[in-house]
Amino acid sequence: xxxxxxxxxxxxxxxxxxxxxxxxxxxxxxxxxxxxxxxxxxxxxxxxxxxxxxxxxxxxxxxxxxxxxxxxxxxxxxxxxxxxxxxxxxxxxxxxxxxxxxxxxxxxxxxxxxxxxxxxxxxxxxxxxxxxxxxxxxxxxxxxxxxxxxxxxxxxxxxxxxxxxxxxxxxxxxxxxxxxxxxxxxxxxxxxxxxxxxxxxxxxxxxxxxxxxxxxxxxxxxxxxxxxxxxxxxxxxxxxxxxxxxxxxxxxxxxxxxxxxxxxxxxxxxxxxxxxxxxxxxxxxxxxxxxxxxxxxxxxxxxxxxxxxxxxxxxxxxxxxxxxxxxxxxxxxxxxxxxxxxxxxxxxxxxxxxxxxxxxxxxxxxxxxxxxxxxxxxxxxx
Length: 382
Prior knowledge:
The protein is α/β, with parallel strands linked by helices. Helices cover about 45% and strands about 15% of the residues.
């Protein structure tokens, strides 16, 4: 009889955690030895954003009427609409109560042999309500980024689980040291990419590209400032930004105020095939994130043959990029240093090709089949 594995998710919308959840579920179900269920609290959209194998069962715990109302609450507060604020506050409390209760009920009632939780509060619920004979695995995607309060919360949430999976070697080392006195074993398993494209970018088109959620920690406003300086230095390359999020309006205003409408394209969210096409038209990948637990988008860029440049403040970038081999890491968020490296690369296709070739070679170790084998070991307690 197949083992049943449940992966607990907050939602199945846009985001790196959600993409990783779907990738793992798709990889595990292909082994044809597990029944896989993704259990999502919220149903933000009619269908999951990322493609899920039809053999994976998807369960939503709350109806779309109980999706988070953070935006409505913020608007009522900003506009000082006290009656609306009161209503939205009550609704928010109801949603949070339902969120917890629905997940507790699921954990108590499920017949899953293995449960994988993907958030701190889900770790806590799994620790408290998971059945004794269920294998309990936490999966941490965020870097604590010197926030020891967050790190302490993570440790408290995971200490009674069986395994705690970290997506970077640095995080595994950190949490292993902090959790040595607990039963929970800290394991390093990187995120994975589905495959390496058969074709790659020729690196001849004059396009820079960056892909990710448009949120403050991703540093896209910094990217636009860097790009504006590059343009002022007569760099004629186009910038493609792929993704959506709360910062989009702010970025659009910066683009308009600085007359960059013909130089920068905000593509919004694109599926994996569309992103691959855009990467094939690009010649350099740029990441300006402040923090990044694991740079899976860097692996995707490398798989398409792109040299990558990132600030080393994005801790996950240091896990992926070997500076001078397949890209460059820029220290101390030094804009001038990043601008120089980008300019150097725009002028030298041979270096772009060498870095891109090395990146394509590196990503072979992150193919989902190889990474899935590591998950299989802990699922089978090998």
